[in-house]
Design brief:
It is built from 8 helices and 12 strands. It is elongated, with a radius of gyration of 19 Å. The strands form 3 sheets. The protein has a 5-stranded parallel sheet, with helices on both faces. It is an alpha/beta fold and 225 residues long. Strand 1, helix 1 and strand 2 form a beta-alpha-beta unit. It folds into 2 domains: 121 residues, Rossmann fold; 95 residues, Winged helix-like DNA-binding domain superfamily/Winged helix DNA-binding domain (Arc Repressor Mutant, subunit A), CATH 1.10.10.10.
Length: 225
């Protein structure tokens, strides 16, 4: 899933980027308000969440938020700020933010708020059942025939993306954008490595794979499972 982070404090930005990437998110980043707004406007339909610092060079988080809301009313926006009065909170929410987190904050709290907002945006269940495979996004668990399956963070994110798009062909470029980073500059054959790993962990021996390869295009969950 893809997040835009606009934060000019280097230590906080680096901490958040590393932490969110470890959790499987693809992160686009800017430390400048004007650039951050341009990135948001160029990719509004692609972002699952936008995280904005309040005070930014070039353009404030409030100005960015208001501009985004003129074009998109649904993308979740979280403010990060040292401002802590009730008036500040109200001001930020009235500008169009969905949530407000005061600095300093615990990473786990930010992560929890991101997941809540993403669930609300999708309006989808966070539990998936497909044949013998069960996925619970909230608890970060995958089972097959009731037995736990250990997946890496990227394997988990890839499986979640495919299950959310069951019945559709997930193009390789789309997978790179949503599961990795839009600026991912390696050969997209890395996707094949993770697909093969999922197949080894989840497929039955000598059975048709539950992930179907659409040659030259991408992948699709196999409806014959």
């Amino acid at each position: 899933m893809r997040i835009l982070l606009v934060e000019d404090e280097t230590s906080i930005a680096n901490f958040l980027r590393e932490g969110l990437e470890e959790e499987g998110f693809a992160i686009d980043f800017s430390d400048n308000g004007k650039k951050g707004l341009q990135m948001a406007q160029d990719n509004l339909d692609e972002y699952d969440v936008i995280i904005l610092d309040w005070m930014l060079p070039g353009l404030s988080g409030i100005e960015i938020c208001r501009s985004i809301r003129k074009e998109n009313q649904t993308v979740p926006i979280i403010f990060l700020t040292a401002r802590d009065t009730i008036d500040d909170v109200v001001f930020g929410l009235e500008a169009g933010a969905n949530d407000y987190l005061r600095k300093p904050f615990a990473f786990e709290e930010l992560l929890a708020r991101i997941r809540v907002l993403m669930r609300g945006k999708r309006g989808e269940n966070t539990r998936f059942s497909y044949g013998p495979i069960e996925m619970d996004v909230d608890s970060h668990k995958v089972t097959k025939d009731g037995k736990p399956i250990e997946l890496t963070q990227k394997e988990f994110s890839l499986l979640e993306f495919l299950l959310r798009n069951k019945g559709k062909v997930s193009r390789r470029t789309r997978i790179i954008e949503k599961v990795w980073d839009v600026h991912f500059d390696y050969d997209t054959s890395v996707i094949d490595v993770y697909i093969n790993s999922l197949r080894k962990k989840l497929d039955d021996e000598n059975a048709i794979s539950f992930i179907e390869t659409i040659r030259g295009v991408g992948y699709r969950i196999n409806d014959d499972l």
